Amino acid sequence: MPKTTVKPRKAKSKDTPVWVSVVVPVYNEVKNVPTLHAKIKAAMTTTKHKWELVLVDDGSTDGSLQAMEVLAAYDPKHTRVVALRRNFGQTAAISAGIDFSTGEIIVLMDGDLQNDPEDIPKLLAEIDKGFDVVSGWRKFRKDNFITRTLPSVVANKLISKVTGVVLHDYGCTLKAYRREVLTGFRLYGEMHRFIPAYAGYGGASITEVPVQHHPRKFGTSKYGLERTVKVVLDLFTVKFLSGYVNKPIYLFGGVGIVFSGTGLLGLLFLFGRKFLTSSGVVDSPVFILSALLFAIGVQSILLGLIAEMMVRTYHESQSKPIYRVRYVINDISEQ
Predict the structure, then answer these.
(1) From CA 134, how far away is CA 169, in angstroms rounded?
(2) How deeply is 162 buried, as exposed, middle or buried, from its count of CB atoms within 10 A (0-12, 13-18, 19+)?
(3) Which domains does the chain carry?
(4) Which residue has the higher pLDDT, 138 or 245?
């Protein structure tokens, strides 16, 4: 994948307004929703942009949806609510928000107020300079270092190394995108964090800016150490889809040659040793067990990649969404 050094396009005239959609997935954030709405509205009114706020309820059970319905009725000009039928996960909620938004620019952010809406104009200023993707960087995080910050640092370095799109903070949801760079791929699993990598693979110009990060005041975090495992597994998929999706034989054939060649050399060594010293070919059960476990692990990863391709083919060939919508409030298509 390309590095994030692509020059930005020529910026539009400052007198040309751009429609901005702020998309926020929400899951059990009833105490944060009213303040979030007020802060986003205050931040957006300081810009020259026309804007809308798309709140996506991801199956909340604490009254968040009802709170969002009140806000949509109070501010129908700017606020749209997309209510999903159940909890489909953050990636699916983001995908739904993008699908039901209308802006040329998409700003994504979390609903827990750890992202600060005051930083949105800063991201839009970079978009106005001609960049396609502007990524927020939580330079001074207010999370637990062991369970959140340290795994994030390791994951960001790993993702940057594997994808070639170097960012300090892939996990920061606060990002701004031109809508055009979000086309050409669909999101599954936990793939929303890899959107900059997909965009970079398509030639988008990317930059990042430091943003504020606040400790959580209300509600509980939905993230844990188990999410690091999901990120690593999804990273395999991103690398496969970006580098080998059109030529999988290079990956599977290469791995097959390496392992079969290594196995052949091992057998030749054992038979040669038996011929020279009369030693047994198989005399260590630990060696056999280790070799078997390693082979099973490699096969599992490769089969997982094949299964990922099958899932994507299933969804995309039939245009099946990864979410189900119960209803939409202030849907522009009905106006």
Answers:
(1) 11
(2) middle
(3) 19-223+321-334 (3.90.550.10), 248-318 (no CATH)
(4) 138
